[in-house]
Each structure stands twice: as structure tokens, then as C-alpha cells.
Amino acid sequence: MNSSNNRLCKECNQPILYGRKDRKFCSAECKSAYHNKNYQIKFRNKAIHEKIIQNNYHILKSFFKEGKTVIRKSSFDELNFEFNYFTTIYRSKKSIYFFVYDIGYAPIIDHNGIRKLLIVEYQEYMKTYRFDAWRNIK
Ligand SMILES: [Zn+2]
After folding, report:
1. What's the pLDDT tens digit per position in 111-132?
2. What residues have CB less than 8 Å from 79, skipping those under 6 apart?
3. How much distance in Å is there from the Cα of 40 to the middle of ligand 1?
4. What is the mean pLDDT of residues 51-73?
5. Residue 87 Cα, ligand 1 centroid: separation in angstroms?
6. How far, in Å, is the centroid of ligand 1 from the Cα of 21?
7. Residue 82 C-alpha to ligand 1 middle, in angstroms?
């Protein structure tokens, strides 16, 4: 008996009739339905978010040097830095800084858009800053 006869789609449980031996889904639709569902479940898992924060922190730490360091945004992307994840914000007159714990970055904007980030260490004076996340709510 051909082992391919035993393969069932992980989403709809129908036999998988063609494709590679390790194929898990009968169609692209089933594959994306399955992954979308799993993503919802994953997103509810606290450990997943903590892992993202840890990864972001690890990346920032590895880029950080005393003084000011400028790093290409593409280097962050290559390491799967998640820009939606940070622990606090500081805003100066010129820039906005996104921190993960004590290390953060400020996007540097030039005529090409944002291609580089300035890496900085959290400073005592930044504590007094209050970010008004609700400013744009009407
Ligand atoms: Zn299917």
C-alpha cells in the first residue's frame, strides 16, 4: 500500500491525493485556514509575546555600543525584529525613541524614508516623559 493514501489534510481531514510526501494540506486554502487559526491561538499565549520582547532586546543589546550607534533597518529585519513590540517610549523635540527595557532606538528619517536607526541607552531624565497614547482618540 502506498503511504500517500494515508495522508489526510490537517485542516479538513480529506485525503491528500497529490504532491510531495511531506505535504500536510490538500490545498492552499486549507493551509492558510489552518495557520490563521493557529495564529489566533498563539497570539493569546503570553509566552509568545515575551519571546518576541526577548528577541528584540537581544538584537538591541547586540547592536548597542557606548555613545551613539547607527544601524541599518535591514539588519533589524534580517534578525526578525518586531517593531510593534517595545516596553516604553521617550519623545524628544526631534525624535521618538522606542525602548525594550534599557536599550532603545530612534528611527532616522531622511529623503529615503526610514533606513537607519539610532541605538541609545535609557537615561534617568527620560523617566519624567509621559507618553499620551490617547492623544489621537476623539
Ligand atoms: Zn484540506
Report:
1. 989 999 999 999 999 999 988 8
2. 55, 59
3. 19
4. 94
5. 40
6. 15
7. 31
Which has the closest alpha carbon to 117: 63, 67, 78?
A: 63
| Long-range Cβ contacts of 71-77 (<8 Å, 24+ apart) | 71/105, 71/116, 71/117, 71/119, 72/115, 72/116, 72/117, 73/107, 73/114, 73/115, 73/116, 73/117, 74/115, 76/117
Average pLDDT, the chain: 91
Contact 16, 25 (CB under 8 A): yes
Q: How far is the CA of 16 from the centre of ligand 1 (A)?
A: 8
pLDDT, residue 55, reads 97
What is the rounded CA–CA span in Å between residue 71 and residue 78? Answer: 12
Enumerate the domain spans of the chain.
3-43, 56-128
